[in-house]
């Protein structure tokens, strides 16, 4: 068993559950109401954002399953390469998240309040550390 990969796996599955269930609840707060002007167009955009949200949920679930298979089975022949790819994948997500904050309208402590990039960076680092 690879302890850094196990920790990354735990963080990833926790992120999946929080993202999927608590995140969807938060998304419902901004759902347009039928009484709003141009409701259909706003509902379409909200639904697209919700679909994108759960696309990330699926990514987190799939990464969790992959990490569990790597950590607890011998299904894959070249686990190190898969871990390196996953490490880059989570690093890319971290950079994209931080960059999006950078180009968005600023608000107080935005990098801490939207600190998911930190979690993604930590997961990336743990997975990379598990390859050495």
How would you describe this structure in keywords?
single chain, 132 residues, mainly alpha, 5 helices, 0% strand, elongated
Radius of gyration: 17 Å
Content-based structural category: mainly alpha
What are the low-pLDDT stretches, counting only 5+ consecutive residues below 50?
none
User: Number of helical segments?
Assistant: 5
In this structure, how is the largest beta sheet organized?
none
The shape, in one word, is: elongated
Specify the helix fraction band.
Answer: over 70%
Kindly state the number of beta strands: 0
* DSSP strand content: under 5%
Instruction: Give the N-to-C terminal Cα separation.
Output: 14 Å
What value does the average pLDDT take? 95
**Could you state the order of secondary-structure elements as H and E?**
HHHHH
Molecular structure report:
By secondary structure, the chain is an all-alpha fold. The chain contains five helices and no strands. Helix 1 packs antiparallel against helix 2 (39-72), helix 1 packs antiparallel against helix 5 (116-129) and helix 3 runs antiparallel to helix 5.
Question: Quick recap of the structure?
Answer:
Helix content is about 80%, strand content about 0%. By secondary structure, it is mainly α.
């Amino acid at each position: 068993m690879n302890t850094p990969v196990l920790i990354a796996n735990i963080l990833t599955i926790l992120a999946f559950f929080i993202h999927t269930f608590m995140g969807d609840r938060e998304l419902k707060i901004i759902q347009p109401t039928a009484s709003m002007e141009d409701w259909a167009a706003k509902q379409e955009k909200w639904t697209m954002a919700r679909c994108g949200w759960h696309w990330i949920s699926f990514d987190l679930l799939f990464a969790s399953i992959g990490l569990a298979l790597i950590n607890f089975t011998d299904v894959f022949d070249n686990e190190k390469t898969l871990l390196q790819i996953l490490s880059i994948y989570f690093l890319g997500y971290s950079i994209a998240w931080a960059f999006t904050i950078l180009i968005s309208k600023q608000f107080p402590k935005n990098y801490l309040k939207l600190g998911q990039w930190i979690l993604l960076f930590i997961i990336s680092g743990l997975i990379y550390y598990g390859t050495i």
